[in-house]
Amino acid sequence: MKNIKLVATDLDGTFLKNDRTISAKNLEALHKLGEKDIIRVAATGRNLKKVRQVLNQHTPFDFVVFSSGAGVFNWKEQKHIYSQNIKKQSVQKLLNHFIKREVNFHAFYPVPENHKHYYFRGNQDCEEFERYFEYNKEHAEELDISTLPETELCQFLVIIRENEDLFSHLKAEIESLCPEIRVIRASSPITKGYIWIEVFHHSVSKGNGIQQICKLTGIEQHETMGIGNDYNDFDLLNFTAHSFLTENAPDEIKSRFPNIPSNEDDAFAVSVEKLLL
User: Which Pfam families does this entry report, sorted A to Z (predicted)?
Assistant: First the structure.
């Protein structure tokens, strides 16, 4: 821990409090890390537009890994530096498969415009799908199945009720369509009892986003630390050499990494305090 040069943290449920604000202690810890020239990274499933809803331009992060690693943004310089979208051929396969299967899904524009998206209502009502739509309808466009978009896309989001067997089946089914893509599981940040099935290019992960920053800054993997709270943080925590899960993580995954206090109890500040001595 003495030689840490980069600290990466998830935002929702980790760095941010439940009301999406930043605690005074976490903000102070960010400033102190900067004084010690330790690179500060936010690694989140949020797209860049949604990142700006919780971080302002002066929040002292150095980089933001957004959309689970589909993009990397130099926060200090406000400059986009990396992106990885799903290729056109795979997009067409996925669109046709989801339409044929009649599932509820959202399909997002290429990075960095991936706050915009298409939506498709399947043959079963889904309250969580409608909630997500209501939150994001300003940037939503109904998918015209007679004229599918012929472009790269950042990701797909399929929403299902919490069902481990169904998730495992759908994951295997989706990943078998084309070798280019992978499925990431996330717990719904909106409503308990739902699983978000996120489909990305296979190289997209929070861990890969951190790796891109390490290459850019010359930092070695053994000099990194990561903090998260959910399934979709595993790629981050498996990459960073020193990794921690917050107390508010799902019980079934807490044994995967050392635990720290919850996001409501300044998890970030507590986890980095030894670096600031």
Answer: Hydrolase_3
Dist. CA 56–CA 35, nearest whole Å: 19
pLDDT of the residue at 225? 98
Tell me the C-alpha distance between 128 and 131, whole Å: 5
Q: How far apart are CA 131 and CA 2, in angstroms?
A: 45
Residue 213 maps to a domain: yes
* Mean pLDDT of all residues belonging to the chain: 95
pTM over 0.85: yes
108 and 158 housed in the same domain? yes
**Residue 1 within any structural domain of the chain:** no
Name every residue whose Cβ is closer than 8 Å to that of residue 4 and which is 6 or more positions away in sequence.
Answer: 38, 223, 224, 225, 242, 275
Residue where a domain stops, chosen among 186, 201, 216: 201
What CATH number is associated with residue 34? 3.40.50.1000
* pLDDT, position 217: 97
Question: Given 148, 182, 201, which residue is the final one in a domain?
Answer: 201
- Joined tokens for residue 229: 């709270």
Q: How far apart are alpha carbons 230 and 239 in whole angstroms?
A: 15
131: domain range? 88-201
- Residue 192 backbone phi and psi in degrees, to 5: -65, 150
